[in-house]
Amino acid sequence: MASPNKTAPTPVEIESYINGLDDPRREVEARDLDAIFREVTGFVPRMWGPSIIGYGRYHYRYATGREGDMCATGFAPRKANHVIYIMPGYADHSTILKDLGKHKIGKSCLYIKKLADVDQEVLKRLIRAGLDDLATHWPVEAT
After folding, report:
1. DSSP assignment, residue 116?
2. Is pLDDT above 70 for 87?
3. pLDDT of residue 2
4. What domains appear along the chain, each with residue ranges and CATH number?
């Protein structure tokens, strides 16, 4: 039997988590990102694991039998970068990313040093595109 996911919903309050961030700029930017994600998704956030502020959820089941739940989209305000979980890895979002501004990407993550480095309207389009793409693979539900 597979072990449970380490990233699972927790009872930590979003406001408490954001208030506890060490860097004042990260705290302000986390509030701004929260407002952006709430606007785009229409979902109330929930903490996933110790540091991911997640919006919505989906249940996945792979051909290998591994299955679990994960937030549909979200972000984690880390020391070096904001890690933004908006690209489930199924689609190419390069046409949107070219207009975003200064960023780095991983398999399903976007890394932004400062929110001021990116165009927030483009970020909103990217969040929506990632969420819409995810919904074509797995049912997404509100949290």
Report:
1. G
2. no
3. 56
4. 14-141 (3.90.1150.200)
- Other CB atoms within a 10 A radius of the CB of residue 7 amount to 17
Angle at 142 between CA 139 and CA 143, to 5 degrees: 125
74 phi-psi bin (left φ>0, alpha ψ -120 to 50, beta other):
left
Rounded alpha-carbon distances, angstroms, from residue 94 to 9, 28, 41, 122, 137: 30, 28, 21, 12, 20
Residue 111, helix vs strand vs coil? strand
Distance CA 52, CA 64 (A): 26
Report the number of secondary-structure helices (H) and strands (E) in the chain.
Answer: 4, 7
Which residues, other chains included, contact 30 with Cβ-Cβ below 8 Å and sequence gap of 6+? 18, 21, 53, 75, 77, 82
Residue 117 tokens read as 């480095």
Structure tokens at 115: 């929110």
Radius of gyration of the chain (CA): 15
Q: List, for residues 23-52, the tens digit of each pLDDT value.
A: 999 999 999 999 999 999 999 999 999 999
Residues across the chain: 143
